[in-house]
Design a protein that fits this description.
291 residues, mainly alpha, MetI-like fold, 12 helices, elongated, disordered N terminus, transport, OppC_N
Length: 291
């Protein structure tokens, strides 16, 4: 009996490895997805290695060298306070990626829990889904502005506000997948064995709903960067002098016609980052669900 169990486990591990190899090959064949991955990796490395690849302190002012064009020791030029734009863009990318990633992970964890509980408990489903639908009916940026006005302009408050806003999306997706998994025969068999609801939900249902949740989380990551930048642009997001892509663009509004570099470079970095994440998300979705 023990030998049979060991053989079954060995076959299962082999099957998992083969499936993983097939998924990796499928991903590598998708040139757009690979391009997206390369863009994301480059942006993440730039953000992580910001102290190494930047020459100037992003907060250091040099009024005598304000609004200097690219060149002369400043790759992306300087801003209205003489600060190096390249340093501020790289550190701003660091903040934007951190905020977007934190929002995506928090929204995924709590949204997944809400969706699973909603699918398993019909009475809770009515209440939780009505709340989610009410929240989803309000535009994300509008709700974020209202919440930031109440909480105050802090990086932590941006993360809290946008995490709450994106939770219902994950909850709806997790619930839809969990409802179909819940009706499978093996779940009924586990119930008959007397397993607790927590074990059933988190040990047996949750792993089977992760694929669509992970795909949606990548899109939330990209969306969160855009919304955070929008909030910072209008002055209710990441506060000055902390650089973020949004408030760097906001500073450039008054000098946009004469100092083009202040909008061009942070804009390109933001577009490439969001584009890379979205393309990567599309690639992951195509592998998980080829239909």
């Amino acid at each position: 009996m023990k030998n049979a169990d060991n053989s079954a486990m060995a076959l299962n591990k082999k099957s998992i490895k083969e499936h993983r190899a097939i998924m990796i090959k499928s991903f590598l064949k998708n040139k757009l997805a690979v391009a997206g991955l390369i863009i994301v990796v480059v942006m993440v490395l730039a953000a992580v290695l910001a102290p190494v690849i930047t020459k100037y302190d992003p907060y250091e002012m040099d009024i005598q060298n304000r609004l200097a064009a690219p060149g002369n020791g400043h790759l992306f030029g300087t801003d209205t306070f003489g600060r190096d734009v390249f340093s501020r863009v790289i550190y701003g990318l660091r903040i934007s990626l951190y905020v977007g990633f934190a929002i995506a992970i928090i929204a995924m964890v709590f949204g997944l829990i809400i969706g699973l509980l909603s699918a398993y408990f019909p009475k809770a489903d009515v209440v939780l889904m009505r709340i989610c639908e009410a929240m989803m009916s309000i535009p994300a940026t509008l709700m974020a502005i209202a919440m930031m006005a109440a909480l105050g302009a802090k990086t932590e408050n941006v993360i809290i506000s946008l995490s709450i806003i994106y939770m219902p999306t994950i909850a709806k997706i997790a619930r839809a997948s969990a409802l179909s998994v819940k009706e499978m025969s093996y779940i009924e068999a586990i119930k008959a064995q007397g397993a607790s609801w927590m074990r059933i939900i988190f040990r047996h249902i949750a792993p089977n709903v992760m694929s669509p949740v992970i795909v949606q989380t990548t899109f939330i990551f990209a969306s969160a960067i855009i919304v955070e930048s929008s909030l910072s642009f209008i002055g209710v997001g990441v506060p000055q002098p902390t650089p973020s892509l949004g408030n760097i663009l906001s500073e450039a509004r008054s000098v946009i016609y004469n100092s083009w570099w202040m909008t061009l470079y942070p804009g390109i970095v933001m577009i490439l980052t969001v584009l890379g994440i979205n393309i990567l998300g599309d690639g992951i979705r195509d592998i998980i669900d080829p239909t």
